[in-house]
Design goal:
Layout: H1 19-28, H2 34-38, E1 44-47, E2 51-53, E3 62-76, E4 82-89, E5 94-100, E6 114-120, E7 122-123, E8 127-130, E9 133-136, E10 151-154, H3 163-177, H4 187-192, H5 198-206, H6 211-240, H7 253-258, H8 267-281, E11 287-292, H9 298-311, E12 315-319, H10 323-337, E13 344-347, H11 353-365, E14 370-373, E15 387-393, H12 400-407, E16 414-419, H13 425-431, E17 436-440, E18 451-455, H14 460-472, E19 476-480, H15 495-506, E20 512-515, H16 521-532, E21 538-541, E22 554-559, H17 567-574, E23 585-589, H18 595-606, H19 610-621, H20 624-627, H21 646-662, H22 672-679
Parallel strand pairs: 2-3, 5-8, 11-16, 11-17, 12-14, 12-15, 13-14, 15-16, 18-23, 19-21, 19-22, 20-21, 22-23
Antiparallel strand pairs: 1-10, 3-4, 3-6, 4-5, 6-9, 7-8
Length: 681
């Protein structure tokens, strides 16, 4: 009896020509079943449809050449290389097929055989194709037509599997099993979007009869992939959007809130605040992503949600990834809200035990109105009396389970997720499709864009001179290094080595400080406070300053080995400056060794737009690296390109949300294919 996986699919070992040993090689490709093989798609295609006779061969072109074997010759060159040479054609014109160090090839051919060769025809001493793909045309091989004379699939490979073999096995599987495929998409959706059925799609994605058929197959498969993803998103959203807390904003509440600040809110901040208030005023829980570029004023929007929650006699929790950022938010929020009689509390590991216990008691009793902290907020013995709002800042720094843990401290809290890492809209709909999304792009008035320069190593002295000039004006500077300690195998400058060198040899007349992630929280806190108070001129740091550090007097940031950082991280680092009224400068010292690192540094020099940078970053890295822990529990995107195929994504999303709205349990028999697919995720 054929082995099946838990979902009833046939093991790949039972495909003719595979067996137990070869099946192990398929496992390395993530192919364990026939269905896996159907969806193991080619990475590209070669057009080998252009078949010519030898008399019509055009040098310099890849082409399929058909002719007769005229003679073969095996000889050893003076260098010791074995050369097998075969003349194909007729008495008027011939092409030579040549293989190096493959003497066994001689046994495969006989004079008089009809043969087809594929490769680039070059003029050496004569017309020649080196190491061509070939087919002996009178051979009765079911896979003989899979490699020449058609649009040929090219697959990602692993050791011990060749293109020829993988094509043959894919062909065998499709011929034997595709007829029994159950179509995952409901017929009405296929008809509405003019999508081919799954059998046609699988046959033509592997062995297309034409490029038109290939395009139809591709569209069908990526629509299906996006559709299944968006059904999962719609089901998640349905699960979250149950009855929750209904907050009420009294008349004039927004105007009273605006008076708490010494600056005017931007129009985009007001728009986002309106969206947050609308969500919180509904009887279903808010589940919103607030996506704002660095320095766009997300904190003010979050503070509106905090105040509205407290106004309605509920507690609010704000969780951030670092103690530095937690303390900073605590200072800002408490300074603004304590005059209103609100009890704002801080809870972080760096506090002494007695203080922690006091805060925990206030949280449990309801005395604490707003609690700001790190992972400490989700510890087992932290109990909230009436938690109505959860805000998670820099969400990508937390895992899925950590985010869930904070939300589980209440029954159905409103949830606001914030990120200063801009995400392209196409990607946001993919990985945050179960959330409402607010965008903040506009910067507060009076902030000048940070001027960014990319400098190579030979400009270092000039860069140091520039930093010296800025400090002489009363400003401060960050210098960011990628490592804490020097490693013998690395040419990267460590933060400790850099600190010593700059203090002793370069800026001996200035006050320098050092901060990195391995320092104790209290030590880090003291250094940051002194730097904020102007006691130090230059702070040498690792990327510990990437998130949330806000010191308006810093006007210069120098990033060492900038080519080693991703675009989004460089943009985050740059966002730590330009927060005051003085012009700020970001200087990237780097020696790019790849095209990708060169593009990153030039992009940073050319634009300050975080969303433009995010698009470029996704283009360089691909969407996969953006997904992170958010992708947990979601179907993998194997072949849809969310940037290129965004229109199809939007169509699939609309259909998915409509379907779940009509059939939230997927009980309709027409939706059984989708239900089974989701069960396998």
């Amino acid at each position: 009896m054929q082995d099946k996986n838990p979902h009833g699919d046939i093991s790949v070992r039972y495909i003719k020509g595979v067996g137990p040993q070869k099946a192990q090689f398929f496992e390395k490709l993530g192919v364990g079943t026939v269905t896996d093989l159907f969806y193991y798609l080619p990475r590209c295609y070669e057009d080998r449809t252009r078949i010519v006779e030898v008399k019509d061969v055009e040098p310099g072109q890849p082409q399929a050449v058909i002719g007769t074997v005229l003679k073969t010759n095996l000889f050893r060159a003076s260098t010791g290389t074995t050369i097998f040479e075969m003349a194909v054609g007729d008495e008027k014109r011939r092409v030579f097929a040549v293989w190096y160090n493959q003497p066994y090839m001689k046994k495969l051919f006989e004079v008089g055989q009809k043969i087809m060769l594929y490769g680039k025809v070059e003029v050496v001493k004569h017309l020649q194709i080196t190491h061509p793909v070939f087919e002996i045309l009178n051979e009765e091989d079911p896979g003989a037509s899979l490699n020449i004379g058609r649009i040929v699939p090219v697959y990602p490979l692993t050791e011990n599997l060749t293109q020829k073999y993988l094509r043959k096995i894919s062909y065998q599987a499709i011929r034997s099993y595709s007829g029994g495929m159950k179509d995952r998409l409901p017929t009405r959706i296929r008809a509405k979007h003019k999508l081919v059925d799954s059998k046609f799609a699988i046959e033509n994605i592997h062995f297309p009869c034409s490029f038109d058929n290939l395009e139809k197959a591709y569209k069908r498969l990526i629509f299906e992939e996006f559709f299944i993803l968006q059904v999962v998103m719609a089901l998640r959203r349905k699960k979250i959007r149950k009855k929750g807390i209904k907050h009420e904003a009294r008349e004039g509440f927004l105007e009273s809130f605006e008076k708490l600040f010494h600056f005017e809110l931007t129009s985009e901040q007001k728009k986002c605040i309106g969206e947050i208030e609308r969500d919180m005023s509904a009887d279903k829980p808010m589940y919103r992503l607030l996506q704002g570029d660095v320095g766009s004023g997300k904190t003010a929007c979050a503070m509106y949600a905090l105040l509205l929650t407290a106004e309605n006699q509920y507690q609010a929790a704000l969780m951030v990834p670092t103690e530095i950022l937690a303390r900073q938010h605590f200072v800002t929020v408490s300074k603004t809200f304590m005059p209103l009689g609100l009890n704002v509390r801080l809870l972080i590991n760096g506090m002494d035990q007695k203080s922690k216990e006091t805060v925990k008691k206030e949280i449990a009793s309801g005395e604490a109105d707003i609690i700001i902290g790190t992972h400490s907020l989700i510890q087992k013995h932290v109990d909230y009396k009436d938690l109505g709002l959860v805000i998670i800042d820099e969400q990508h720094k937390f895992g899925v389970t950590q985010r869930k843990a904070l939300r589980s401290k209440a029954k159905m809290p409103d949830t606001l997720i914030m990120t200063a890492t801009p995400i392209p809209r196409s990607l946001a709909l993919t990985i945050y499709g179960d959330m409402d999304i607010s965008f903040l792009k506009e910067k507060p008035e009076g902030r000048e864009p940070v001027v960014t320069y990319w400098a190579e190593e030979d400009r270092r002295e000039a860069v140091y001179g520039f930093i010296r000039d800025e400090i002489a004006k009363g400003r401060q500077a960050f210098i960011v290094c990628p490592r804490v300690k020097e490693e013998a195998s690395s040419d990267l400058k460590s933060v400790e080595e850099m600190y010593r060198h700059l203090q002793e040899d370069v800026f001996a007349d200035f006050h320098l400080a050092l901060v990195h992630g391995r320092m104790k929280p209290d030590a880090k806190k003291k250094v940051m406070e002194k730097f904020r108070d102007g006691k130090y001129d230059i702070l040498i740091a690792t990327t510990v300053i990437e998130v949330g550090v806000d010191i308006p007097n810093v006007t210069v940031m120098l990033v060492e080995h900038a080519e080693r950082y991703g675009l989004s991280q460089l943009h985050q680092l740059r966002g730590r400056i330009g927060r005051g009224r003085h012009q700020s400068y970001c200087i990237l010292i780097g020696e790019p060794k790849t095209e990708a690192s060169y593009r990153r540094l030039t992009t940073m020099s050319e634009t300050n737009d975080g969303f433009e940078i995010a698009e470029m970053d996704m283009d360089i890295r691909g969407p996969g690296e953006f997904l992170g822990t958010r992708q947990s529990g979601l179907p993998e995107l194997k072949f849809g390109n969310i940037a290129r195929d965004f229109k199809i994504m939007e169509e699939a999303r609309l259909e998915a949300f409509t379907l779940v709205g009509e059939d939230p349990s997927l009980e309709d028999p027409h939706n059984s294919g989708i239900k089974e697919s989701i069960a396998k995720i």
